[in-house]
Write a structure and sequence with these properties.
The structure is a single chain. The chain has helices spanning 8-25, 29-35, 40-49, 67-81, 83-102, 105-116, 228-264, 276-304, 310-334, 346-355, 363-378, and strands at residues 122-125, 141-145, 148-159, 166-174, 177-184, 190-195, 206-217, 221-222, 266-267, 270-271. The chain is an alpha+beta fold. The strands form three sheets. A four-stranded mixed β-sheet has the order 1-4-5-8. The radius of gyration is 21 Å and the shape is globular. It is built from eleven helices and ten strands. α7 packs antiparallel against α10 and α9 (310-334) runs antiparallel to α10. Bound molecules: flavin-adenine dinucleotide. Flavin-adenine dinucleotide (FAD) binds next to β1, β3 and α11.
């Protein structure tokens, strides 16, 4: 295992996340997947444990230091038990991050105490039907009128769209100018559109959120007009190591159960693990998980040190997403016909893994970022 030096209090946090994940979340994972319903009880549990508040200043319940690293390690632990539940942690961090990095003092005074309670969920509204990978292609607008902005946009694929009470929303305030706003779910003109019926992460709520002439006071604008794109990019530097963590958790769960199965199941008079074709798959999986963990930890540490980490964050997200897909595919193979049924959790892990190659920038987009950074480094 990648050696990660942690303080005593950090080890204790992780131990309690591991315990809760194993004892209270893992037993629900199959049901959550089958029913496809968002579990408020788990979200509340996270709030009580302080896991929804990690990135807030310590005076509001956030961690003192190593926030991104601790966030990733907690997400990985929860994802081993249930990826849908781990996504609740991710989107809370992603949705609140624009507020945490860009809020002025009066916004901090208004919103930090609310977030500190760990009772409300956030949504992050960027993607639109014709603008996913190309964030700059969004068409939603905020038109200034007196001391208010009038927001119009149809946002799609909003994680927590239907369960969040607060959204951070990116819209255009000029031809090539993007700005974040804080929008309350119960504001006039905000409505929930289609709820997505997804392949995996079925316990995560994903909806359209429609903004029709929503009046937002300028006090809810984050940063200056035009600063939104930069804030969104900063958010990626934190969230991509987080997606790497969720992917690793899924991969580790798949390896654990397929290793166990390979030791128990016999064919041709031998346990599967004694067949080299199977043992090599498992050896590769263990190696890839170690390599992915190294990338995730380094990306998180660089973020915590305020070192530009876009390249390694993309490497971590891309590599861990790809190996999660490969390792879960191999896990289904190791289980043979049984892996293709709902009697074992490998098919759920296989379905969940796919999303980690898609959201927070597809793995093609990650490779574009890595290549761009390499070109920049070359001058
Ligand atoms: C379950 C789920 C939850 C999500 N949660 C959120 C959320 O909370 N908030 C939010 O704002 N968004 C969210 N998203 C949106 C997600 O980030 C986008 O789906 C993702 O960025 C891809 O955009 P797209 O779906 O429009 O694909 P497209 O951009 O249409 O891409 C389609 C395909 O083309 C490839 N491609 C595109 N451009 C290029 C290129 N230049 N070179 C090579 N290949 C390219 C892509 O990699 C992809 O394979 C979520 C999505 C899902 C599925």
């Amino acid at each position: 295992m990648t050696m990660i030096e942690l303080e005593e209090d950090q080890r204790m946090i992780l131990q309690s996340v591991e315990k809760i994940s194993k004892e209270r979340i893992a037993p629900l994972a199959a049901e959550i997947d089958r029913e496809g319903v968002f579990r408020w009880d788990i979200a509340r549990l996270f709030g009580e444990m302080g896991l929804l508040q990690i990135f807030l200043p310590p005076s509001y319940g956030g961690l003192e230091e190593d926030k991104t690293l601790m966030f990733c390690l907690c997400v990985e632990e929860v994802a081993k038990a249930c990826a849908s539940s781990a996504l609740t942690l991710i989107i809370q961090a992603v949705g609140s991050y624009p507020i945490i990095v860009a809020a002025n003092q009066s916004q901090r005074d208004r919103f930090f105490p609310r977030l500190a309670k760990g009772e409300e969920l956030l949504g992050y509204l960027v993607t639109e039907p014709y603008a996913g990978s190309d964030v700059a292609g969004i068409k939603g607008t905020a038109r200034k009128k007196g001391d208010e902005y009038i927001l119009n946009s149809r946002k799609c694929f909003a994680t927590n769209g239907g369960v969040a009470s607060l959204y951070t929303v990116l819209v255009k305030t000029g031809e090539k100018e993007f700005t974040f706003f804080i929008v309350e779910r119960d504001q006039e003109g905000v409505s929930i559109g289609k709820t997505e019926d997804k392949l995996g992460f079925r316990g995560s709520n994903t909806t359209e959120v429609i903004l029709e002439d929503v009046r937002v006071h300028e006090d809810n604008r984050l940063g200056e007009e035009g600063e939104g794109f930069l804030i969104a990019m900063k958010d990626f530097d934190m969230s991509r190591p987080g997606i790497a963590a969720i992917a690793l958790g899924i991969a580790e769960a798949a390896l654990d159960i397929s290793l166990k199965y390979a030791c128990e199941r016999e064919t041709f008079g031998l346990p599967l693990i004694k067949h080299q074709a199977i043992s090599f798959m498992l050896a590769d999986a263990a190696t890839e998980i170690e390599a992915g963990r190294g990338l995730m930890v380094e990306a998180a540490k660089q973020h915590d040190r305020n070192t530009p980490n876009a390249k390694i964050a993309s490497m971590a997200k891309c590599f861990c997403g790809d190996i999660a897909m490969k390792i879960t595919t191999d896990a289904v193979q190791i289980f043979g016909g049984y892996g293709y049924t709902k009697d074992y959790p490998v098919e759920r892990l296989f379905r969940d893994a796919k999303l980690t190659q898609i959201f927070e920038g597809t793995n093609q987009v990650q490779r574009m970022v890595i290549a761009r950074e390499m070109i920049e480094e070359m001058g």
